[in-house]
Amino acid sequence: MRIAEAWRVALDALRANRLRSALTMLGVIIGVASVVLLVAIGTGTKQQVEQQVEGLGSNLLLVVPGKIEVGTAPVVSPLTLKDVDAVTRVVGDPERVAVTVASGATARAGARSDFTTVQGVLETTPAVFTRSLARGRYLTGTDVDTSRRVAVLGDSVARALFPDRDPLGQQVTLAGVRFRVIGVFAPLGQSLGVDRDDEVHVPVTAAQRLWGTQRVDGIAVKAPDRERIDELGERIVAELNRRHPDTEFSAVTQQQILGVLGDILGVLTGVLAAIAGISLLVGGVGVSNIMLVSVRERTREIGLRKAVGARPRDIGVQFLLEAVLLTTIGGVTGMALGVGTALLVDALSPIPAAITWWSLALAFGVSAAVGIVFGVVPAQRAGRLDPVVALRAE
Amino acid sequence: MTGSPPAIEAVDVSRTYQLDGVSVEALRGVSLTVRPGDYVALVGPSGSGKSTLMHLLGGLDRPTGGRLVIGGRDVNALSPPEMATLRNETIGFVFQAFHLLPRTSAVENVALPLVYRGVSARQRRERAAAMLGRVGLGHRLDHRPNQMSGGEQQRVAIARALVTEPTVLLADEPTGNLDSVTGAAVLELLERLNAESGVALVMVTHDQEVAARAQRRITMRDGVVVADSAAHDRPLPVDHGRPETLVPAPSAEPRSVSGSGPGHPSGGSGGAAGATGRLPREPGPSHAGADTREPGRGEPEDGAT
Questions:
Q1: ABC3 transporter permease C-terminal domain: from which residue to which, for each copy (chain A) (predicted)?
Q2: Are A87 and A137 in the same domain?
Q3: B181: CATH
């Protein structure tokens, strides 16, 4: 039998049982659609995070105590503002050096309160991390030098504390100490479910006084150019090691952060795809099941075809194609559904989703493979039927 | 007649089934030759091995003993695909229950054997349409089985059996599902095609009057041939048409054979009767009426009813 003829026969058979074919396909459709959708969400999240890390500013170098690796415990920082001065001397340009000392604290304004992250920073932060303000002004060198109790609010904090008032010039109480609001950040949005606008910036000196500490958590340096970024990092780490021989320091670049995050999100995407793959597998079992039913139902037809000259292979191919047709039609439909849902999710919800060609190709390939794998047994059974027995079936 | 090579030659053919560990001898040494143009009626009570023999002659099954040569090829030397090709090229089947594909037009049903011969779609349709014309259904090409009467459906099945121009047409109770008028017409068609095209016609029947019309009548009982009227009326290939007995067709009573079926084995082959192992089912089907029943199942050789 010619293959084109076999396709036609398979298609006719599916048409003859429209509802059953559709329901069988539904399993594959759901499986493929969920693979496509979940991979799209995983990919979209990864892209979003990468954009945000890149958005931190290019040529960024983060210097922290300890090693930056997944699974290592954080180290208590021995760094102080004197170390920051030393790093600044290595860098040669104070405008390129930022610090942070951060802690959770409750911010209050009147009757309202909001638990947020208070960051003690230098006036260089907007330049180093590429942040911009919606209102007011940022901290100045004088604010830092004089430990002035002024604060710049993240967008979320401003909304929480001053829902119906202009926060500029208002008082906020951080950990029991009053600060005056001088600016509000432009909103950044969320990243991996974390609200990046939930923070308050105050002069690092004021923050240290607030918590009674001399330390800073980390230092960020904006390198003058990409080529010398690694060398600069090494020099900074060497200087810090000289000053603190007992502590190990790391200087990581944006690329390294991206790499680590990319690995984590890649695993996440893989896990999502695997979970969706299970539903595709279940859909495949459904195909196998319905094909066995189909073989049984059409036993007489198989007997007749054999009587008039169909070879076992002809019958096997016919049923195999039927299974493959079920899963590939289901696969294409599932792809369309998955892509459509992903686009909707991306447009209408905060969850990002991005379609990748490899996920579509994979989903289609897997659905066709599912048809072959789960169609083989019923097809073989059909091909091997004894024509005498088959002709007599009811 | 003896000059032409046999279409089918069976020499001491036997067929034993294993059913749940029990050996059942359906055929116990049957020798038989079918020549091109033959018109053979195969009669015998239920369980006599008619259907088993038909399946063997049609290459649907293989003997467990003896030699069976179909179209010059020894069946025991053929693989399943080769058997399929052999069936396609040399045998046409007509079944009691028609066995047409539902939801498939008459012309496509007829063309089905050509599909497995690799004939192009256009040629298939042409040849199938021509064949339907020969059976008087040239105006019903695109009708589906459920849009046709039983007689028409059986004509479609006959056209399907002959579209490959086989050397042997095997008909298993071809009129069994038809009323007597329609049945007679179908029978006449088979006889006409046999006469016109020279295809050998081997027909299983319960109907003695139908059997009487054949050139040759082979009677089976308990897996052996007990009578073969091969010798006498061979020389008239064209004129075996209508014995007077059949003209008042509606009165033809198919029950004459089946009614006496189970009682008979007391005859000469009585000792072998029990050995075939067909125990509980035997009486049931045999007097249920030969013209309405579907082939049975489960037992290897009761399909012919």
A1: 274-387
A2: yes
A3: 3.40.50.300
Q: What residue has token string 């009587």?
A: A307
CB of B160 less than 8 A from some CB of A: yes
**B32 belongs to a structural domain:** yes
Of A205, A211, A135, nearest to A169 by C-alpha is: A135
Q: Which residues of B185-215 are buried (b: 16+ CB within 10 A; e: fewer)?
A: bbbebbbebbbebebbbbbbbbbbbbbebbb
From A151, A194, A196, select the one nearest A170 (Cα to Cα): A151
For residue B53, give its domain range. Answer: 8-286
Q: Which residue has the tokens 């680590």?
A: A260
B115: nearest CB among A1, A303, A392: A1
Contact B101 A304 (CB under 8 A): yes
Structure confidence by residue, pLDDT tens digits, A114-158: 999 999 999 998 888 878 899 899 999 999 999 999 999 999 999
Nearest to A391 by CA among B304, B104, B285: B304
Residue A65 to residue A217: CA distance in whole angstroms:
8
Total structural domains in chain A?
A: 2
Question: Rounded to an integer, what distance in angstroms lies between the CA atom of residue A183 and that of residue B277?
Answer: 102
B58 touches chain A (CB under 8 A): yes
The identity of residue A174, as a single letter, is: L
Residues A40-93 have pLDDT tens digits of 988 888 888 888 777 766 688 888 887 766 556 666 788 888 898 999 988 888
Q: Note whether residue B3 is domain-resident.
A: no
Complex ipTM = 0.75
Angle between helices A312-348 and A299-307 (to 10 degrees): 140
Does the residue A136 lie in any domain?
yes
Read off the tokens for A59.
Answer: 């040529």
Residues A37 and A127 in one domain: no
Mutation target to probe the A interface, by most A beta carbons within 10 A, among B18, B51, B60, B108 is: B60
> What is the C-alpha separation between A260 and A53, in angstroms, rounded?
11
Listed in sequence order, the DSSP H helices in chain A are 3-16, 18-55, 81-91, 125-129, 141-145, 155-161, 204-211, 229-243, 254-297, 299-307, 312-348, 357-384, 387-392
